[in-house]
Structures are given as structure tokens and as C-alpha cells.
Write a structure and sequence with these properties.
358 residues; alpha/beta; Aspartate Aminotransferase, domain 1; Aspartate Aminotransferase, domain 2; 2 domains; seven-stranded mixed beta sheet; three-stranded antiparallel beta sheet; 12 strands; 38% helix
């Protein structure tokens, strides 16, 4: 008798991350490679983070604080909520998994956009849920269509704002109008991984106010992007105490490492580094917009640290040809490519190479 696997995972495909720099160097015999594929912070991380990690290196023999007590308090104090409303995780990826495990039963419907973070879909399928896929409208979440997709079987709705990979956003007014019409037994997960890069005024910059008005809302944030802690895998989720308690039941006991906890606390304190990351990203985005306009390349307006553009050629082909020249980007589908915004030098190099490839 052969080994039997859960039928729910039969058609799932493993998540494919951006290609590592060292792999590309080996594959093409290159000495210099720039990676603009995974929306990483080109400035690195705050110097305060490195200092905090160095201080913690003498305690690697101890298990982490399984409750992340100090980190929860730092987040709660900064945002004016209770520590019991906060749950740190090993990046947003782990929390997406935990939320699906907490809420999704076999046959439950989960509403997801057709072009968004892929883990929303795979974790719903993993739990035996039924994905209800709603197409984007002008590369942006179509909240009206999502609302119209709600049925008696709807359990969960995933919102990524600004969206990955398109970089687009919906406004505070649109979100509040949407939430006002969602049944209270339907959980809405509001993933704002890229919130620190938003330049528009009509974005919901203070999402914490949602928690009091909408007890069915879960807010997710990460320190992988603007704070530059992608390697340490640390994010945090905020919700009602009831929701946090339930998610906590299926959480691994030491899911956030000691180094991640102290690094996150230090990163949250360094507002100057965050401001610099915002400014460098804004300047780089405007440069890339101008270059794309001059090249006749269409793109989605971005409120993130990446731009989704139409290469008018097979995305995989563009990806491979750029790789050969030492530039890693992310093919999305068809002719659409996502490029992360780097330093000005990296952005200029990308445009130079893209011109030769196209």
C-alpha cells in the first residue's frame, strides 16, 4: 500500500521565492548581481537593530520568550492598544497560515483577489476551504465585487492594501464603506505589509481605529519590508482579545526567535531609519515612473516599494534575460513583471539593462 497524503494538498504548488543572488552568480558566472525581486529594503536595517542583536548573542543557549512579552508591550505602547490584542509571528507568512488554521473548515468559502499574495489561496485550499476568486479592477481590489460574492458559506475575506504584487491601494473611505456592509460572522483580514511606503493622503493610515468598531477585523503588519528585517522573519497581528486567544492556541511555542524579538523592538524605535526608507523609496519610484513613461511602458500606480509593469514580452523571458546580465526581478504572469525599488544606483542599472533586453 502506498503512502496517502491529504487530498487537499494534491494540487498545491510550493511557494517560489525570489531567486537568491548566489544562485544567479553561480548559474551565469557573474561577480556582481543586483536583486530587485523580493521587495527587500535596499538600505538594509537600522544600526540599532544590529546593536540589539549583538547584545543578545550571549543568550543563544536559552529558548526565546514564548510569549514575546517585551515585543508585545513595545507594539501595544506604540499603538495605544493592549498587549493582549497583539500576536507576533514568524513574518506575515506564518500568520496567514495560522489564521486559516484557526477559522477555515472544509467547505467554508474564502474570498480572495485573483492577483494578490499567493499564500492566501494556498492556505485556504490546504484547510479544505473553497476559494472564491474575485478579479481585480484596473489592477486594484474590487471591493464591490468582493462584497457581492459573500454567501452564507463565507468565512474569511483577505484584503491586501496596498496590494502585492500590483502595488495599488484602495482608499480609507472605500474600506470603511466595505466593512460597514460585511456580516459580523465573516472575518476580514486586513494585510498592510507595505503601509509604511504609502504616499497618498486618502489611505487609512490609522488602521488601529478599526479594532474598536469592527470586532471581526484582523490587522496584519510586518517588519520585513520598510524596517528591513526580512531575514529575521518577524511580523505582528492585531485583533480583539478573543481572536488573538484563539489563534494563539495553534501557534508554535517558540515561533519568534530571541534575536527577532530584540531586533523588532529596536527597529520600531528607530523612526529616523523608517523616514529615510520612505524617502529613498519615494524618490526611486518617481525615477522609475519617468523612465517607464519615456520607454512607453505601462505600469500600475504603486503605493509600495515595488512596481508592477507590462514588459509587452513574455515575463519569464524578460526575467531570464535580465538575470543573465546580473539583474533579478520577479515575473508575475503573461507579460507582467514586478520590480522592487532599490537605491538610485540600482534603479538606474535596472533601467539600463531593461532597455537592452527590450
Amino acid at each position: 500500500m502506498s503512502i496517502q497524503f491529504r487530498p487537499q494538498i494534491k494540487d498545491l504548488v510550493a511557494y517560489k521565492p525570489g531567486k537568491p543572488i548566489e544562485d544567479v552568480k553561480r548559474e551565469y558566472g557573474l561577480k556582481e548581481v543586483v536583486k530587485l525581486a523580493s521587495n527587500e529594503n535596499p538600505l538594509g536595517s537600522s544600526p540599532k537593530v544590529k546593536e540589539a542583536i549583538l547584545r543578545a548573542l550571549d543568550e543563544l543557549n536559552f529558548y526565546p520568550d514564548g510569549n514575546s512579552t517585551d515585543l508585545k508591550k513595545a507594539i501595544a505602547d506604540k499603538l495605544g492598544i493592549k498587549p493582549t490584542q497583539v500576536l507576533p509571528s514568524s513574518g506575515s507568512d506564518e500568520m496567514v497560515d495560522q489564521i486559516s488554521k484557526t477559522f477555515v473548515n472544509e467547505g467554508d468559502e474564502v474570498i480572495i483577489a485573483n492577483v494578490t499574495f499567493p499564500r492566501y489561496l494556498s492556505t485556504a485550499v490546504m484547510m479544505g476551504g473553497t476559494p472564491v476568486i474575485v478579479p481585480l479592477k484596473d489592477f486594484t481590489y474590487d471591493l464591490e465585487a468582493m462584497k457581492a460574492s459573500i454567501t452564507a458559506k463565507t468565512k474569511l475575506i483577505w484584503l491586501c492594501n496596498p496590494n502585492n504584487p500590483t502595488g495599488t491601494m484602495f482608499t480609507e473611505g472605500a474600506l470603511l464603506a466595505f466593512l460597514d456592509n460585511i456580516p459580523t460572522n465573516v472575518v476580514v483580514v486586513y494585510d498592510e505589509a507595505y503601509r509604511e511606503y504609502v504616499t497618498r493622503e486618502d489611505y487609512l493610515h490609522d488602521s488601529i481605529k478599526l479594532l474598536d468598531k469592527y470586532p471581526n477585523v484582523i490587522i496584519m503588519r510586518t517588519l520585513s519590508k520598510a524596517y528591513g528585517l526580512a531575514a529575521l522573519r518577524v511580523g505582528y497581528t492585531m485583533a480583539s482579545e478573543e481572536i488573538i486567544n484563539e489563534i494563539n492556541k495553534i501557534r508554535g511555542p517558540f515561533n519568534v526567535t530571541s534575536l527577532s524579538q530584540v531586533a523588532a523592538i529596536a527597529a520600531l524605535e528607530d523612526t529616523e531609519f523608517l523616514k529615510k526608507s520612505y524617502e529613498v523609496n519615494k524618490e526611486g519610484k518617481l525615477y522609475l515612473y519617468k523612465a517607464f513613461d519615456e520607454m512607453g511602458i505601462s505600469y500600475a500606480p504603486s503605493e509600495t516599494n515595488h512596481i508592477f509593469f507590462d514588459a509587452k514580452r513574455d515575463a519569464q523571458e524578460v526575467f531570464v534575460e535580465l538575470q543573465k546580465k546580473g539583474m533579478i526581478v520577479r515575473p508575475i504572469f503573461s507579460t507582467y513583471v514586478r520590480v522592487s525599488i532599490g537605491t538610485m544606483e540600482q534603479n538606474q542599472r535596472f533601467i539600463e539593462l531593461l532597455k537592452t533586453v527590450l
